Amino acid sequence: MAHLIQKDECTNCGACEEVCPVECISEVDEKRFIDPDACIDCGACIEVCPVTCILAPEE
Ligand code: SF4
Ligand code: SF4
Question: Between the CA of residue 21 and those of 18, 40, 45, what are the distances in Å?
Fold first, then answer.
């Protein structure tokens, strides 16, 4: 499982992309998208999202 951006709430601000250490966040259809195969679940993106629309994988 990887971190997931809730598309409807994402404002496409780009803050998450700037902090992702593995650069697995990119822009798709004017939203940011996390590549689930590349995400290492570090949680850095969650910390910076101004609208808290990124979900951690369920335990
Ligand atoms: S959890 Fe870490 S690796 Fe995954 S998208 Fe967020 S910043 Fe990138
Ligand atoms: S930080 Fe949040 S609102 Fe901004 S682009 Fe990333 S997921 Fe979207």
Answer: 8, 9, 9
